[in-house]
Amino acid sequence: MKTNISKLAIICAGAFALSSCSSSSKDKPADTTITKTETTVTVPAKEENAPAGSSFTVAPDSAVLGKSKEALVKVTDANVVDLQDAEGKSTGAELTVKLQVTNKSTLDSKKYFSVAASDARLELDNGTSVPGQNESGSTQPEPEASTEAVWKFSLPAGSSPKKLNFFVDGTRVSVGLTKK
What we know:
Blueprint: H1 2-21, E1 53-59, E2 62-65, E3 71-84, E4 90-103, E5 121-124, E6 129-131, E7 133-137, E8 146-155, E9 161-168, E10 171-179
Antiparallel strand pairs: 1-3, 1-10, 2-3, 3-4, 4-8, 5-6, 5-9, 7-8, 9-10
């Protein structure tokens, strides 16, 4: 047994001596070589998961309404978004119209009016007329002030907007819509 212990002690001492005598990485000089690698990554253009649509030009872009010509309605933007069902079949479209309404009357005369979306009519290329819905904003400006509003019109499948009619105080003015 003593011989086994002494053999084990000699083997451990030899292993310790070999490990201490071998060259270590601490003794080597530092590697000063710098390797520069460049990677070029091409990112594909992001495809939007948005419905198809188109913009419209409004001519003339503004209309003066009212018996005293106190209402100025300006169409600042008109866009159509095509609507589809789950199978991709067209179910119609939605026209969004952004308006700026100005009350041109003076503070002294205090004339008030309202340009209602439900009174406006969108004429389509198939001869039908569609009423609008007020999405946001106001079309009841104070005298010598302006307000902004967004109106939406639901279009049946296969139709396109042709003309937008505004009604105020027994007067009617139309603005034409053409696809850009």
